[in-house]
Write a structure and sequence with these properties.
5 helices; mainly alpha; 120 residues; single chain; 39% helix
Length: 120
C-alpha cells in the first residue's frame, strides 16, 4: 500500500477521493487501521516514481490519517514502512535489524518519531 498517496494525491482531507467516490465510499480509502485489526500484513511503499520516495511522509500519513478511525500508531506505521516491507521482500536475512553479519541499513533522525505531535 502507498500511504503517501493520502497527502500527495488525495489531499489532506481526502478531498479528491471524496469528489470521485462521495462521502460514504471515501471511508474505504486507505483503511490501515481496519486492515491491521483483521490481522492482515501490510507493507508500505511510495510507488516511486509516481511519488517521491519518502518513508517518513508515509509514516506521517498513516499516523495522521484524515479519517480518525483509520489512524495507526507510530510503531505500527514504522513497521509498515520498514520492517514488514523487508520481511515480505525476504530481505530480513541481510538487513532490517542491526546485528553482526547484517548490512548497516539505518537512518538517523533529527526528532524522535514517537514524540512528534500527531493530528488532532
Amino acid at each position: 500500500m502507498q500511504p503517501i498517496f493520502i497527502t500527495v494525491c488525495e489531499g489532506p482531507d481526502l478531498d479528491y477521493y471524496r469528489s470521485l467516490l462521495g462521502d460514504y465510499r471515501v471511508k474505504r480509502a486507505h483503511t490501515y487501521r481496519a486492515i491491521l485489526d483483521e490481522g492482515i500484513t501490510v507493507a508500505g511503499g511510495s510507488d516511486t516514481p509516481v511519488t517521491r520516495m519518502s518513508p517518513l511522509k508515509g509514516i506521517h500519513a498513516c499516523v495522521n490519517h484524515p479519517l480518525k478511525e483509520q489512524r495507526i500508531d507510530v510503531h505500527e506505521a514504522i513497521e509498515i514502512s520498514q520492517l514488514t516491507r523487508l520481511k515480505l521482500a525476504l530481505k530480513m536475512i541481510l538487513r532490517g535489524i542491526i546485528e553482526p553479519g547484517k548490512l548497516a541499513d539505518f537512518a538517523v533522525l533529527s526528532d524522535d518519531p514517537y514524540r512528534v505531535p500527531g493530528r488532532k
